[in-house]
Design brief:
Layout lengths: L17 H12 L8 H13 L5 E4 L2 H11 L7 E4 L6 H8 L3 E4 L11 H7 L4 E7 L8 H10 L3 E5 L7 E2 L2 E2 L6 E5 L12 E5 L5 H8 L25 H32 L5 E3 L6 E2 L5 E5 L2 H9 L26 H9 E4 L7 H13 L1
Parallel strand pairs: 2-3, 2-4, 4-5, 5-8
Antiparallel strand pairs: 1-9, 6-7, 6-11, 8-9, 10-12, 12-13
Length: 367
């Protein structure tokens, strides 16, 4: 008998221990400063240190961080941004938000990440930036994408929303782009309930980024004296979210390692099962396996099989170009079509224990 609801979810919220979190929240909530302040600035420094990033700026969401990154890249109305359709929708609705045109490049049918050659073919004299998503926590080919961006004089923006803790060529993701964004939304590797981080390679861009984060205003200048030179937004993180984030950082290494251990176990255990295959990794990529990407001859059958043992599985995202809002920019994407047809995600996070993953592997072997 099939259960009414999956018992093992595809994604799950992680929070610090109650005995640590609640006193810390009480301190900040009743401390007289709940908006952006020292807790935010401390979180920025500790996040950057934890993940080997330059110049981290905390934001209210990963989407807000991406909006700032596009503006720092000089993307303006009518410009083109080469991007992927295989992502969560905010990657590309944010491109529309700045008035630019999303140009969808094709992806590798074996992992869903942008193909550097397809990116290069999509570049025109109107292109201002490339947005690369490390889909499901599997790093894209950053060495080649960085080379493409440099040869064409374009900004490379890394969307690392799925890929906290992933590495490429022994360096953290986020270190290759001119800017990189991270999501701290509820179900990511790490959450601050909602939030994001913008990493900026060029420190000279930080003052502008900070102003864009806060209405165009410079912090620390009396409001009666400050002068707005460019409009900004309400994208700042607050001290309450930062307090959660600071506690999350204390256990994030072990949490990400649990994702990685489960992902590597699936890589080995499922490689020889007929009808399915693990997603491939480009040379040098070390995934952080936010969710596990499996390719199946019959993805619907995999979902049904796992549902029968109380395990959630799904494609999770819809290719963005299928939405009506992106209809004007649809183009043939045969690699993406092949990837999406076979795609099914299975749980591999910190909540998946050894017995759970063996149950999943056993069900897929029998199926």
């Amino acid at each position: 008998m099939q259960p009414a609801a999956p018992l093992l979810p595809l994604v799950k919220v992680s929070m610090p221990p109650r005995e640590q979190l609640l006193p810390a929240l009480e301190r900040v909530l009743y401390g007289g400063m709940i908006a952006e302040g020292e807790d935010v600035y401390r979180f920025e420094a500790e996040f950057a240190q934890a993940f080997g990033l330059p110049n981290a700026l905390a934001t209210s969401s990963g989407t807000g961080a991406l909006h700032i990154a596009l503006l720092l890249a000089g993307v303006r109305p009518g410009d083109e941004v080469v991007t992927t359709s295989m992502t969560a929708e905010p990657t590309n609705t944010t491109i529309l938000q700045v008035g630019a045109v999303p140009v969808f490049a094709d992806v590798d049918p074996d992992n869903g990440n942008l193909l550097p050659a397809a990116v290069e073919r999509a570049i025109t004299d109107r292109t201002r930036a490339i947005v690369v998503v490390h889909y499901a926590g599997y790093p894209a080919d950053l060495a080649r994408l960085r080379d493409v961006a440099d040869r064409h004089g374009l900004h490379l923006i890394e969307d690392c929303a799925h890929a906290l803790g992933a590495r490429f060529g022994c360096r953290p993701v986020g270190m290759f782009g001119d800017c990189a964004i991270f999501s701290l939304q509820a179900i990511k590797h790490m959450t601050t309930v909602d939030g994001g981080v913008l990493a900026i390679r060029d420190a000279s861009r930080l003052p502008l980024a900070r102003r864009l984060r806060w209405f165009g205003l410079a912090k620390g200048v009396p409001r009666t004296e400050v002068d707005i030179t460019t409009p900004g937004f309400k994208y700042n993180m607050n001290n309450v979210a930062a307090t959660i984030g600071l506690l999350q950082l204390q256990g994030i290494g072990a949490l990400i390692q649990a994702h990685v251990d489960n992902g590597r176990h699936y890589d080995a255990a499922l490689a020889s099962v007929a009808g399915i295959a693990p997603a491939t990794r480009v040379d040098g990529a070390e995934p952080s396996y936010w969710i596990y990407t499996l390719l199946a001859d019959d993805s619907d059958d995999v979902e049904r099989r796992l549902a029968s043992i109380g395990v959630a599985a799904s494609k999770l995202h819809r290719p963005n170009h299928l939405h009506t809002v992106f209809a004007p920019w649809r183009r043939p994407l045969p690699g993406l079509d092949a990837f999406y047809r076979r795609l099914v995600h299975i749980p591999c996070g910190w909540w998946v224990g050894a017995a759970d993953r063996e149950r999943i592997v056993d069900a897929l072997r029998k199926g």
